[in-house]
Amino acid sequence: MFLNLDMEELIQYFSSISDNMRGIILVSGLTFFLILELWVPLFKFDYKKSKHAFLNIFFNITTMAINLSGAIIIYNVTNFNSANSSGILNSINMPLWLYIFLGLLLMDLIGSWLIHYIQHKIKWMWKFHIIHHTDLYIDVTTGLRHHPVESVFRLFFTIMAIIITGVPFGIVMLYQTLSAFFGHMTHANIQMPKKLDNALSLIFITPHFHKIHHHYVLPYTDSNYGNIFSFWDTLFKTSKKFDNLEDITYGIDTHMKKKEVLSLKNLLLIPFKSFKTIQKSKFSD
Question: What single string gives the DSSP state of each residue in 22-85?
Fold first, then answer.
């Protein structure tokens, strides 16, 4: 009973969370990991951190604009769910804590893992997602680096996840807040004790687990797709290990020239240029 009361308060809080408070939470998380990067860096990059951050933050501004436009759709869809008890989770009686957990789990599967996996498998979608992989210096701001068209893909799959699950607005806001936090954490250039990382990665996506996804060649780029939970990579056998993280090379093997991946104009236009055969013929021309 007390657990249900606490869960109700949690969902109620995120149902009415203000944009200012959500912004404070997200900026605080970003700042926290920026500080950790200075304290316990995994790699000592030779780069202009502020210039690198500015480039990635620009992409985040476009993502925020797209998500703001989609917020009205999300709000209306969740209202429809509540009014009509639609969605698979609303067809089963269960404790509130389980409802929230399954809601987050399925939102993570459809709204994050699935669209991420699909973008790696469909050529025209990969051309937009590749912008995220062109970052040669993975740090906390890399989680913000998504081409505007990719942000539309992700918004569509988030809405689809809401329709399928039937989750209310509070769970959507909780999920998006957690998703942003994990985006910061898993890209942060920080060291974690290996035993701790291994233990946490049985359930959650950790910084070391996700860094493998950013190694510049196959089969590593096509692995470890998860955002919050590692269940999905385990279930669908898409997880891989990399023994020595210090040997990881960031980027994508078809776009390793600095002048190419540090130009905002070029990054925006890469998807519309002639396609380069990816990583040992990942796609046939």
Answer: HHHHHHHHHHHHHHHHHHS-SS---S-HHHHHHHHHHHHHHHHHHHHHHHHHHHHHHHHHHHHT
